[in-house]
Amino acid sequence: MEQTIRVELSETLKEKPKTDQLEFGRVFTDHMFVMEYTEPLGWHNPSIVPYQPLTIDPSAMIFHYGQSVFEGLKAYLTSDGDAQLFRPERNLKRLNRSNQRLCIPEIDEKLALKAIKELVALEKDWIPGAEGTSLYIRPFIISTEPYLGVAPSRHYKFIVILSPVGAYYKEGINPVKIAVESQFVRAVVGGTGEAKTGGNYASSLKAQEVVAKEGYAQVLWLDGVEKKYIEEVGSMNVFFKINGEVVTPALNGSILEGVTRNSVIQLLKHWNVPVVERKISIDELHEAYKAGQLEEAFGAGTAAVISPIGQLTWRKEHLVINNGETGEISKKVYDTLTEIQYGKTEDPFDWVEKVSVPSKVKHA
Amino acid sequence: MEQTIRVELSETLKEKPKTDQLEFGRVFTDHMFVMEYTEPLGWHNPSIVPYQPLTIDPSAMIFHYGQSVFEGLKAYLTSDGDAQLFRPERNLKRLNRSNQRLCIPEIDEKLALKAIKELVALEKDWIPGAEGTSLYIRPFIISTEPYLGVAPSRHYKFIVILSPVGAYYKEGINPVKIAVESQFVRAVVGGTGEAKTGGNYASSLKAQEVVAKEGYAQVLWLDGVEKKYIEEVGSMNVFFKINGEVVTPALNGSILEGVTRNSVIQLLKHWNVPVVERKISIDELHEAYKAGQLEEAFGAGTAAVISPIGQLTWRKEHLVINNGETGEISKKVYDTLTEIQYGKTEDPFDWVEKVSVPSKVKHA
Ligand SMILES: Cc1ncc(COP(=O)(O)O)c(C=O)c1O
Ligand SMILES: Cc1ncc(COP(=O)(O)O)c(C=O)c1O
C-alpha cells in the first residue's frame, strides 16, 4: 500500500532570491518534508509542512552524541521547464547504508523518493533557471530522544529541506590548488568514512582551516593507517589520469561511494577510456608526475560535478598538473554529466528521473 | 571585569524524581545555562533560564556537519549538606581543547565555571542525597548557523543542563565482561579521539550494539592503525595491574584524557603503587595473562568512577581476571575517589571545589 504524504501549505510565501545573487545553502524554500520515528510506531506521519524551526529538547541525542546521517542531491530545470533529479535512488540507498553504520532505523526508500519528488514539485518555482544553477536537496536524519546515554536513540526525525543554489563555477570550470594532508585524518577503515554522517565533516574542518590560510582550496586526504594511500579530495572523490589510464581509489571502507564517482566511471567505460579502481599511493602519483605521466587530476561530487586539480602540494613540492589547466577528460566528463543533468543531451544510462508536477500544485 | 550572569527564574518547578527511581540522564532540572556566540560579538549574554526546548533552524550546522563538543562532570552532596564539584577546571580546559580541534571559538573558562556553580547552587535541591547519587552536569556547545556549507559555523550556543542521577552500582561495585573490538575503530591519530565531540560517540554505537547482543557490557578499543595497542574501554580510560605495576595507555592523540584517569594516576603515586603510562598491546596483555601476571583491570571515568573488568574476551578466548572479582587496587581507588568526591575523607590534592549557595537563592 502506498503511503500518502500529508500536506500543510504555508500561508505566506517567501520572496525568491535573484538568480545572480544565489549562494550555496543559505536560502531555503517555503516547505520541508518531515517524518518521525518513535518506538514502537516506527517511521510515521510523513508530512510536507511550512519550512520552520525545529523545537528540540536540549538533552536530545543529536546535540551530544552526533547520531545523524544526511544526503545531498539536486533538482535541475530543463529548457522545456521540466524538473528532474539525477540518480536519486543511489542517494537513498546510501542513506540507508549510512543508517546501518550509525544504528539508525532504515527508511522506506520508495517513500523517501516520493517525498522528495512531491516536495520538489510543490517548490518547482524555486528551481532557478540560469546556467549551472539548481535546487539543492538535503535529506537528513537526526536523533531526538531526550536522553544522555551513549546508546542508539529511540526517536528520530527524517527531514528534507531545499535550497536554490547558484552556479558552482561563476566563470567557467576552473582548476584549484590542493594540499596533501599530512597531519589530520578524515577517516579510517573500521570508522565511519563510508557513511555520510556529521562527525566526518566536523573532524575535517581543522585540516581545511589550516590549508585555507596557505591559499589552498581543499586537502587531499590520505588513508589513516599508513598515511600513504589516496582517499578523497575535500568532500569529493578523486580521479587521476596517468599515462592514458584513469585511476580512482578503490572503495575500501573509509571512502564515501559518490554518485558522481560511479557516474564518471560508467561514462569513461562507455567511451572506452581505460579506467580502474585500485589502491593508489601518493608516492606512485609523485613518481608518475616526475615521469611526466600525471596528465589530469580532478575531484568529483554533486556540488561541483567535476573540480579539476591544477596543483597538488606535497611535502612543500608543487606538482603542477596539465599546466594548471582543465584537462580534456575532466572537461568532457563535466560537460557530459551536466548536459545529462540539465536534459541537454541524451541519457543512455537512464540516470535522469523526471519530477511530474501535478496540475493541482499551484504556484504563487 | 567579572561578567554577570542574567537569571530568569522558572515560574513553575517540576516534581523531583524519587531517589530510588533515578536513572541516568533522563530527568533534567528546572533551569539551564545558555550563552550565545555570533560574529563579531563573540560569546555573549550568559544567562540562566528556565529549562526549555531549543528552537533551531533545520539548516543549522549541528544537524548536518556535527560540529559540537561536550563535557560531563558531577555535583556531589556532602553529609553536611554542601554541594561540591570534582576538579571542574579540568573539564573546562578539556572543553577548550576540544573546541580547538573542532574549530569552535574557545570559551572563558572562568565564566563557564562561575555559570556551572551558579546553576548548581540554584538547583541545589535537585542534588540527590542517597549513597552514590549525584547531579550530573552536561556542558555542551553546538553550531547553530543556518548554512549548508562545510565550514566552521559562525553561530554557537554553549549550554549547561543538569540531571539528577542514581548510583551507578545499585548493588555495590561489580565487574563486567568486555569484548576486545576487532572490526570497528573508535578513533585514530590525526582524527578527533582526544576531543570530546559527538562524532566519536556516534561512531562507537555499532560496535557496542554488536557485542551487547553477545552479553558484553562494553568493548575494549584497540588503536585504529595496527589494531594492536589498547586505547580505551567503552567511554572510559583503562588500567591494568600487571605483576604489581599499574599500566595505562599513554596519551597518544586518539585517547581522551580523562579527569578520572589523571586522578587515579595521582592517587597511585601518592600511595607509592608503581604506575606507568605507556603503549600496551593486546598481545602483551595476553602474555601477562598466560603467565598469571594480569592481576587487575578496570575502566575509569566520571560516570562509574571505577568499573572493574572481570573478563576480557579476545579472539574467542575468555581471559578471566582476578577470578571475575573486583581487585584490591580497583576497590581502593574506587573507595578513595568516591570518599573524596562526597567529602567523606580528606582531600590532599585540593580536588574538590565547594559550591557556595548564597542565601538569596531560594529553594522551593
Ligand atoms: C566525503 C565525500 N566524498 C565524496 C562525495 C561525493 O559524493 P556524490 O558524488 O554522491 O555527491 C561527497 C559528497 O557529496 C562527500 O561528502
Ligand atoms: C571516550 C571517553 N574516554 C574516557 C572518559 C573518561 O573521562 P573522565 O574521567 O573525564 O570522565 C570519557 C568520559 O567521560 C569518555 O567519553
From TrEMBL, chains A, B:
CDD domains: BCAT_beta_family
Pathways involved: Amino-acid biosynthesis; L-valine biosynthesis; L-valine from pyruvate: step 4/4; Amino-acid biosynthesis; L-isoleucine biosynthesis; L-isoleucine from 2-oxobutanoate: step 4/4; Amino-acid biosynthesis; L-leucine biosynthesis; L-leucine from 3-methyl-2-oxobutanoate: step 4/4
Catalytic activity: L-isoleucine + 2-oxoglutarate = (S)-3-methyl-2-oxopentanoate + L-glutamate; L-leucine + 2-oxoglutarate = 4-methyl-2-oxopentanoate + L-glutamate; L-valine + 2-oxoglutarate = 3-methyl-2-oxobutanoate + L-glutamate
One matching Pfam family: Aminotran_4
Residues where N6-(pyridoxal phosphate)lysine is found: 196
Record key words, sorted: Amino-acid biosynthesis, Aminotransferase, Branched-chain amino acid biosynthesis, Pyridoxal phosphate, Transferase
Coiled-coil boundaries: none
Gene3D superfamilies membership: 3.30.470.10, D-amino Acid Aminotransferase, subunit A, domain 2
EC number: 2.6.1.42
A biological process from GO: L-valine biosynthetic process
Record keyword Transferase present: yes
Gene Ontology molecular-function annotations: L-isoleucine-2-oxoglutarate transaminase activity; L-leucine-2-oxoglutarate transaminase activity; L-valine-2-oxoglutarate transaminase activity
Cofactor(s) the protein needs: pyridoxal 5'-phosphate
Family note: Belongs to the class-IV pyridoxal-phosphate-dependent aminotransferase family.
Protein name (record): Branched-chain-amino-acid aminotransferase
Top-level taxonomy: Bacteria, Bacillati, Bacillota, Bacilli, Bacillales
